Amino acid sequence: MEGYRIRVNGEEHIAMEDVNLLRYFRDELKLKSVKDGCSEGACGTCTVLVDGKPTRACVLKTSKAEGKEILTVEGLSEREKEAFIYGFGEAGAVQCGFCIPGMVISGKAIIDNDPNPSREEIIKGIKNNICRCTGYKKIIDGIELAAAVLRGDRQIAGKVEGIVQVGQDIPRVDVREKVLGTGEFADDVEKEGMVYASAVRTKYPRAKVLDIDVEKALALPGVLAVYTAEDVPVNKIGHIQQDWDVFIAKGEITRCVGDAICLVVAEDEKTLAEGKSLVEIQYEELEPIRSIKEALAPDAPSIHPNGNICQQKFVARGDADGVLKTCKYVLTKNFTTPFTEHAFMEPECSVAYPYGDWVKVYSSDQGIYAIRKEIAIMLDTDPENIVVENKLVGGAFGGKEDSSVQHLAALASYKLKRPVKVKFTRQESLNFHPKRHAMEAKFTIGCDENGVLQAMKADIFFDTGAYASLCGPVLERACTHAVGPYTYQNTQIRGFGIYTNNPPAGAFRGFGVCQSCFAIESLLNLMAEKVGISPWEIRYRNAIEPGKVLPNGQITDPSTGLKETLEAIKPIYDAHKYVGIACAMKNAGVGVGLPDKGRCRLVIENGIAQIYTGATCLGQGLATVLNQIGSQTAGLSLDQIYYNAPNTECAPDSGMSSGSRQTLITGEATRMVFQQLADDLKEKTLEELEGKEYFAEYFEPTDPITSTKPNPKSHIAYGYATQLVILNDEGMVTDVYAAHAVGKAVNPKAVEGQVEGGVIMGLGYALTEYFPLEDCVPKVKFGTLGLLRSNQCPEIHSIVIEKPGVDVTYGAVGVGEITTIPTAPAAQGAYYAYDGDFRQSLPLRNIPYKNRKPVYEGEPEIPSVPGE
Q1: CA distance 61 to 59
Q2: Could you tell me where the beta strands, DSSP code E, fall in 241-368?
Q3: pLDDT in tens, 94-151
Q4: How many CB atoms lie within 10 A of CB 571?
Q5: Strand locations in 471-578, DSSP E?
């Protein structure tokens, strides 16, 4: 066979097999800028130019590419590379970076077609490239800037010199490697002698495993091993509750379609696929538990030994029942929200290899120490024996808090003493990793004749699927924030996390608050109508202010800026007919009495202040934030500071990148450690301090939700927001105004990027995204999730409100989660203003946007509280 002749980046290559270009480029030519986001032709991360036309490499075979001229990011001219690095850096277009090389290629095609493209042309030109982080606005800006450089209308500015300040806009420190695709994600890792592993997973959500026959698979040349539950020292993992089986053993019952039965390890991926197909499993299919109602039925089988109630939470203050009886107006409504998929652009991947007597794991996750703990539990060893290091993380949004592939790679590597790569297909990812919890809830609020809130009650049910994941803390946050950012003291919220045979649910941006905020904020609009005031007015009359008491009893600090966010959007609200409004608050830090510590180690090496911290950067820009804090504190330039990838071997545990906590908590630890360096620099130069190490830990105690204090401190700080969603006469969303009180914006452009991306994610939750299940089995692919594309997005207007008052990290409060929370109820309010239909479920029904949710008319049915 002569093969297929293809010109790639100006050089001729011969492909000997007829495979898709994605695999040929990555596996044979080692062109790692071409990313594997879905292998379904849906995401655009593998976009290349074929004879000048943007083409998804995963759908074009080498046989069809013969004789064509193909370009990847590696083949751009140096001038083009520098133009895109500058444009994307200056615009703030880069977050996680996984989609960015594909965006750059689409951007080149746009500019080649028109050196001075309009924004509309750019939007159209990137519509086949999905970004889950940015909301597209800054990518469009970045392509505009790159075009201006390439046609000579703009000069590339030099790198940032000297000391930078907190509050200064600077390009992210990782822009270059993410634009060029040279930054290493886990799937880009190659090691000598590396082999491949993948799990055989049940196709039944609930079935008894009668037999597992692996003999044919083991007989296949190139298959190295097949591991089952018998081969695992401890067959349980779990982030908080260890209720998740590594493998379902013979004789045991599966709990969801993602459950692994065995792990096949082979010399190459082709043999691996064949080996998996040879594993024979016999099942006795059983009736699945599809819903909360079914799970709570008296005759329901138990999914776990302790029954089907995973978690219960109770949050109360004052006398809600008594005060509701005295209220002028009382409203009760039921609400439902669906499971939602994170859809981070990088599917889960991990590489483990022998390291001493144990293993080292390259991981894409949200907390290296949490992953280390889960692996150590499984291998029944001291966590110190396992090393976990982050590679670049291609988005997470809460979906990478649990171990997914890391423990499987570690198990195989430990057993075989070879490097092992385990990666999910996109469908495996959709089926396996925890989603946003589906909610069913009943909310009651009461107010006086002036619309001043007096009391509220809520019963909240979360479907946590087959496993706990983070059910406990997510449910708790949904309950504690269900009251909204207002001032009243009589509340009672009961929360229940229920096991079903659906895919598991866990952390997702907003951490349970998206669900409860949708309910309380939607209900406020009806209450305003009863009182005879506007939805804006009822929120302003009840808005929390500095020094006032939140419904949980906490006295708010001077940075509390909810009223300022309401005032900022008031003229816009008044100027539009079809407008919806919603407010939100969101904690920064874990709080509620749990030990939540930020830690930072600083080492002076070769004249550089090297930052070591276990805090993972997910794309939110943590490395840049910590560098800015260090620069201002110690008076160093950026080229004198370096943020190292989190590694349990050399970086202290700084907790999970979750709960909008890293900027505030690890940021303060970083400020403290650089202050130690600053004190030494008063007497010595950086060179004279060579080899010196510094360490700082920041910890501010909080009170548990069971505290009996009159005014407990539940969280170190809160962020506040008000968002407006505006419709045109056709019912399409044209604009979203998002006013966010952030304390101090460390990097204002990065804050805007978080807001824009969060708003688009929240709009998708409201309008188009749906995760359909049929008998607990996902009936969805990446391309049918309903993710918003560039040509479907409205204009996002970020209003960043800075207000001092938090005494740590120069006053910064995390903004990563709150950006998504108020968007869906604001959209609900806009459509209520538009047509008078009060929608109580997401995604919203009877709107001009397509979604796959069946239309539900009438009052949603809510389960009865257990025991009542």
Answers
A1: 6
A2: 244-245, 260-266, 280-285, 309-317, 329-337, 349-355, 358-363
A3: 999 999 999 999 999 999 999 999 999 999 999 999 999 999 999 999 999 999 999 9
A4: 8
A5: 491-499, 505-506
pLDDT in tens, 376-386: 999 999 999 99
What pLDDT digit, counting tens, does each position of 568-586 carry? 999 999 999 999 999 999 9
Burial of 322 by CB count in 10 Å (0-12 exposed, 13-18 middle, 19+ buried)? exposed
Annotate 92-140 with DSSP letters as a single string. Answer: T--SS-TTHHHHHHHHHHHHHH-SS--HHHHHHHTTTS--SSS-SHHHH
pLDDT at residue 377, rounded to an integer: 97
Residue 83: how many CA atoms within 13 Å on its side-chain side? 24
Burial group, residue 425, by CB count within 10 angstroms (0-12, 13-18, 19+): middle
Candidates 162, 168, 765, 302; CA nearest to 510 is 765
Q: Could you give the 3-state DSSP secondary structure of residue 20?
A: strand
Encode pLDDT of 814-864 as tens digits.
Answer: 899 999 999 999 999 999 999 999 999 999 999 999 887 776 667 888 888
- B/e letters for 628-651, b = 16+ CB within 10 Å, e = fewer, are bbbbbbbebebebbbbbbbbbeeb
Burial (Cβ within 10 Å: 0-12, 13-18, ≥19) of residue 348? buried
Q: Do 621 and 174 contact (CB within 8 A), yes or no?
A: no
pLDDT over threshold 90, residue 659: no
**Of 124, 119, 113, nearest in space to 142 by CA:** 119
Distance (Å, whole) CA 401 – CA 368: 9
Nearest CA-CA partner of 89 in 141, 165, 34: 141
Across the beta sheet with 4-8, the strand order is: 11-15, 4-8, 69-71, 47-50, 53-56
In 288-367, alpha helices (H): 292-295, 320-324
Q: Nearest CA to 105 among 68, 132, 80?
A: 80
- The number of beta carbons lying within 10 Å of the beta carbon of residue 769 is 24
Per-residue DSSP letter, 809: G
Distance CA 323, CA 327 (A): 7
Which amino acid makes up residue 439? M
Q: How far does Cα 84 stand from its chain's mean position?
A: 26
* Rounded CA separation 38/761 (Å): 19
Structure tokens at 135: 């909301």
Q: Is 468 buried (19+), middle (13-18) or exposed (0-12) by CB count in 10 A? A: buried
Six token digits for residue 389: 């290091």
Give the pLDDT of residue 856. Answer: 63
Residues linked to residue 735 through DSSP beta bridges, in sequence order: 726, 795
H or E stretch including 722? Answer: strand 717-727
CA-nearest of 70, 101, 64 to 8 is 70
Other CB atoms within 10 A of residue 115 CB: 13
Model's pTM, two decimal places?
0.97
Instruction: Return d(Cα 70, Cα 54) in angstroms, integer.
Output: 10
- The conformational region for residue 511 under phi > 0 = left, psi -120 to 50 = alpha, else beta, is left
Structure tokens at 725: 């969603």
